[in-house]
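Entry — protein

Goal — fold tokens:
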Amino acid sequence: MTQSHTQKNQSERTYEQVATRVSMVSIIWNIILSLFKLLAGVLAHSGAMVSDAVHSASDVFSSIIVIIGVRIASRDSDKEHPYGHERMECVAAIILATILSITGIGIGINACRNIFSGDYANLAIPGILALIAAFVSIMVKEAMFWYTRHYAKALDSGALMADAWHHRSDALSSVGALIGIGGARLGFPILDSVASLVICIFIVKAAYDIFMDAIDKMVDKACDNETEQQLRDCATAVEGVKGIDVLMTRVFGNKIYVDIEICADGSKTLLEAHEIAEAVHDSIEKNFPKVKHIMVHVNPV
């Protein structure tokens, strides 16, 4: 095995370890937060806080899906999957986006039902403990959003980014609970449902963005123009390369596959042309860690 392949395997193992650690941190905090909010909701007679506790509990399931998706995606290539398993992480992101959208739509439907019912007088007035729990939830979930988002960007992980936005949706849900509980204590119980309806829009929008990003990676979308230009510059900087005839890229999960046709002096021997192609291959692989596979073809000038 070459040094570059060894480095790539090490990078993939590090990716799996970091993603798993981030997901485990999410699971632990979500369990603690769910139990705390459930207790506060029951003791303070707050239906909004009980619902918020259930929302936090759904994040535990989401994080488990992330761990499973990342572990499968990190498996080595095999006979049945010669290009690897990276797309399984996209599948995990799609599942999370679906959960996120269902959660948002559920919040929206419940909010509309309460708004149009007109029965505001019979709603229970929540205690101060529910207000405290909502504030604590906002702080913890927002911190978890930025923590998970940081590693999602560092690893370019769609599943982790989906999990990060699930944390944000929970924080927004807690904002709605905070406004609703505060409004109810001030004599305006309808504020809970209005805030929930606004939260629904944010959650569904986040789910849509995550879903479309995963779909793009599933259908071999090309890299952005900036990345392709950097690949061209890297190839043309290699001695012996006279130009680029064709450059095709595709995003495969969180990896990039490159097919490139370079042109070289037609009078060179096959061995010399092969050495130029090898130099292009090694240069791109060295400078672009996300590139998993490169096919270099040499055309005579």
About this structure: The mean pLDDT is 81. Strands lie at 243-252, 255-264, 291-300. The longest strand covers residues 243-252.
